[in-house]
């Protein structure tokens, strides 16, 4: 759309017109408000002056009762063409009145002036003098003045017209110059007119020509620079593109390149190769050694598949490589390639300094292109988990669903922590002799949105994986300590080896015990298996806790190898016999034998025994028969929100 | 018979005494006291706070003077404007320097009018005369009835006495000059007066018949 030009000359002319109009309006206004009044005042004053002149004579004549003289005086006045009538009033009555012959004609355009008549040489009012004065003069003055204003207005209009034409003429070169510059471009030289004009227009033209020359020079320079920069940018773009799609260490196409390729093909297959325990190589021999092995490994793989045009080797990340099949091979060939590769790699030796290193790999495969990377990755992880060298992605693995569930659980856990819905439930532990509650186990529960109480078996494993576990432990420690602060009863809290290894958690436990003063009441339950596997850490934790008066229980004792020697050294207070031994205790003679041995051993060590999972009376009786010190289970008391002593 | 008696009486009065114009007397009695108030310095001429209007007459004119006095009393009831006044009747032979006057009014005197004029001049007061001829002797004002009532003012006397009158007064009076048209005025006024008389007599006769 063409931009509408707002002419400068039009603006100037318009402005002058506006000022002129305003001036005329002001003049008219002044005329209306001041001059008309002034004209009227002049006429009034004239009439008043006439009255003032004759008033003493009239006054004297009235005073001297010379009424005939009054009339003769008034008669003289009436000779004035502006005076239409004169009246003398005494006590409100007209004592004399004279009218001019034009009275009837001009009475409509007249005004009346009155003056009091005073007794000569006194202030006594003896009558009123009334003068009817013609407004003819006034009307004439106004008319003359109006004509004058119209003349001024016409004069202004003519002046304005000529002035506007002149301004237009003066500024017209600017418009011509602007038109000549309309199609200007830095590469095109235009002819600018009025260069010879000896005024501001000429100066503008000259300046524009100089400017045009400079711009032309500058544009040429700029063009060269741009050309150079474009070349550089292309080079750099190629370089960056290469970097973007290439692994900097091995020079192989990277993950992004793989994703790009997957999107670019309709059919194919993928193998993801992971070097097992590569972290250990890094840890043992250092990062440089790791990198060298990765490079050697990449070369080896490249050599193997160099002749395969339909297979692309890629380096996805640190210890992860991929083989992208651009054409889908037969399934058997695909599996064969994977397995052969595993065998080949096992036979490879990598030298670093004086060391000969061999590596093993795990391969996950996806025999379809749709979501190939994710599927091969799932297959790889499943293979690792199942400790297999190769696994092909199978829908039956149901790994995806599991992943989704895990994600949902993590969300639920986070929400529960945020909304304070992680709570301890308390299950009583009874003394088998006195049948009284002597202790209580604090069990973690999650309250969901529908107020369902969720047991830890559903979320604890996920919590451990998602690093929320330590938070849950701290919540349990805090809430349990807080609950038992003023309750005279022992209570036990489960601790995992992850908790014991976490310095922050240990510090928090200590602070809570101190804060709520529960060191003499609290019992930490540690899994037998974890205690043996991480003996050193668990042992020092036990020593530390016992030093401040806490007690330790070994949980699920009998589920593992039950190394009594270790137990002896751990200086524990309670043994909680594994539920699998207790639940069939009344009928399973093997279980009875094992439990009897444990109890016997514990008594010798002066360690108290606790039977879990006591779910019926028969089991309960057997527990008592076997002299187990304490008993716990659904028969005696389910875990509840509140403990009833 | 009545006409004969009336004619007789008229002739007798013309033979033995001066005949005053009653209308003129009343006009003068009405206007002259007012003229006193047109003097801007009347305050200086009061006698014990009063205006003293002194009528000087010949002993034959006592009753005329008395009539004038009564007429003034009837018209002004003791007050001229804001001032009280007294009409002082003085026979010429008894006129002396002790005679009080804020203004003199002179009835017809054959002689000595100039003496009164001199006295008025000395005192700086206004002098009025029944007869316009007396302006010749230095009296300041007189009044005649012509087509209308005309006040005459003797110009020289005004200059010599320097009485400060209300300006308008000087516009309505007619000035006389001892050396100019006084005789004409006198003749004219007499003519008019005679015509007046004739009219009055004719009117009265008409009423009686």
Describe this structure in words.
The complex is a heterodimer of chains A (645) and B (209). Chain A has 645 residues and is an alpha/beta fold. Chain A has 21 helices and 20 strands. In chain A, α1 (8-63) runs antiparallel to α4 (136-181), α7 (278-285) crosses α8 (287-305) and α13 runs parallel beside α15. Chain B has an 8-stranded mixed beta sheet, sandwiched between helices. By secondary structure, chain B is of the alpha/beta class. Chain B is globular and about 35 Å long. Chain B has 7 helices and 8 strands. Chain B has one domain: Response regulator (Rossmann fold, 3-Layer(aba) Sandwich), CATH 3.40.50. Classes of the chains: A alpha/beta (645), B alpha/beta (209). The interface between A and B is medium-sized, with 17 and 20 residues.
Topology summary:
The complex is a heterodimer of chains A (645) and B (209).
Chain A: H1 8-63, H2 67-78, E1 83-90, E2 93-99, H3 103-106, E3 110-118, E4 125-134, H4 136-181, H5 200-245, H6 255-264, E5 269-275, H7 278-285, H8 287-305, E6 311-317, E7 320-325, H9 331-346, E8 350-352, E9 355-357, E10 361-366, H10 372-385, E11 390-392, H11 399-418, E12 422-431, E13 437-447, E14 453-454, H12 460-465, H13 469-484, E15 490-495, H14 497-501, H15 503-516, E16 522-527, H16 528-533, H17 535-547, E17 551-557, H18 564-570, E18 574-577, H19 579-582, H20 589-605, E19 608-611, H21 617-625, E20 630-631
Helix pairs in contact in A: 1-2, 1-4, 7-8, 13-15
Chain B: H1 2-16, H2 22-36, E1 50-57, H3 62-76, E2 79-80, E3 83-91, E4 103-106, H4 113-123, E5 126-129, E6 141-145, E7 149-154, H5 155-161, H6 167-172, E8 174-176, H7 182-208
Parallel strand pairs in B: 1-3, 1-4, 4-5, 5-6, 7-8
Antiparallel strand pairs in B: 2-3, 6-7
Helix pairs in contact in B: 2-3
